[in-house]
Amino acid sequence: MGYLWYDRALKYSMKKVLLGNTRQLISEICLGTMYFGTKVDSQQSNLLLDKYVDAGGNFIDTANNYAFWWNGATGNESEELIGNWLKEQTREHLVIATKCGARPTKYQGDLETVQFEGLSYDTIMKTVEDSLTRLKTDYIDLLYAHVDFLDFPIEERLIAFTKLQEQGKVKYVGISNTESWRIQESLQTSKEKNYAKYCCVQQKYSYLRPKRSADLWLQKLISDEMLHLSNLNNEFTLVAYSTLLSGGYTKSVDELPEEYQTTDNMLRMALLKSLAEAKGCSLNQLVLAWMMHQNPRIVPIVSGSGLEQIEENLGACAVKLNGHEIMLLNKAGE
């Protein structure tokens, strides 16, 4: 069984799915590049990007602040690395997503006291110009508001997003780390005033669930309400980050962060192990496959520092789940 995931990854080409309310096709798995150019050096990062594209991937995720908290980093590194890599690619075949709003204006090594740029009209317009320069491209396919700061009015960012679309600098817009009611408010405002409309929402999500009391800082989970909202109107695609809990599925539950050490997760992990063994896949692959089999479908973001990690993750595309298996996975621990 040890080599099965490797064979799958090499032989399987990813399917494409629609990006929300657009006609844009994106890969069913997205490649995250948070540590490309910092923790993962340039040469290795380029190899990982090439491997992903060779497997049929086209959806690449970055931000205008990755990874400012890494030793000696500025937050420019991921976008700059992708920009240099893009020079050797066919640009129109790729969907590049980046983010604005959470680049630090003041950072002294403590994430709890960092100050962010925010989502004012002027800030959004300027940071997009900076991202375009770093990415060495004329347009951004998908621009997210990185964090939904409540003290910045929804309408102000929508006006900026609309202007950027009119200028041809941004094709599509989305939101990250937000609440369902804010999505509803944004979609309604866009409809009433003919502003740019969110086609994508990116949130934290995995098969194991944190305690309700967990302090996730600025991160927001894909909630049951958000799943229902996505199913109800089919306006936006759900994209998930932290899907594999930084290697958490290779550990026992008591090795996970404290907020994940629950009886619920012990039962979920036991079922994962049993089903993965029966299907001849890794736990990571099963978690990703479970997301892609949800209704609404969830597009998982994967990353890593080694080719084998990327190959294993992409092998999830070949893992098929029937209705009974999905039901068992969904109900475990309840």
The CATH homologous superfamily:
NADP-dependent oxidoreductase domain
Widest beta sheet: strand line-up: 3-4-5-8-9-10-11-12
Q: Figure out the total of helices.
A: 11
Q: What's the overall average pLDDT, rounded? A: 94
Q: What is the rounded Rg?
A: 19 Å
Query: What is the N-to-C succession of helices and strands?
Result: HEEEHEHEEEHEHEHEHEHHEHH
Find the CATH topology. TIM Barrel
Strand composition percent? 15-25%
**Number of separate structural domains:** 1
CATH architecture level-2 label: Alpha-Beta Barrel
Q: CA-to-CA gap between the ends? A: 30 Å
Number of strands: 12
Low-confidence sequence ranges: 1-10
Helix content: 25-40%
Largest sheet: 8 strands, parallel, barrel
Structure description:
It is a single chain. The chain is an alpha/beta fold and 334 residues long. It has a single domain (4-331), classed as Alpha-Beta Barrel (TIM Barrel), CATH 3.20.20. The protein is 38% helix and 16% strand. It has 11 helices and 12 strands. The protein has helices at residues 4-11, 42-54, 77-86, 121-135, 154-166, 180-193, 224-233, 263-279, 283-292, 307-314, 323-331, and strands spanning 16-18, 25-27, 30-32, 59-61, 95-100, 104-106, 115-116, 140-145, 170-176, 198-204, 237-241, 298-302. An 8-stranded parallel β-barrel has the order 3-4-5-8-9-10-11-12, surrounded by 5 helices. It has a two-stranded antiparallel ribbon with strand order 1-2. Strands 6-7 form a two-stranded antiparallel sheet. Helix 2 runs parallel beside helix 10 (307-314) and helix 4 packs across helix 5. The protein is globular, with a radius of gyration of 19 Å. It starts with a helix and ends with a helix. The model is unreliable at 1-10 (pLDDT under 50).
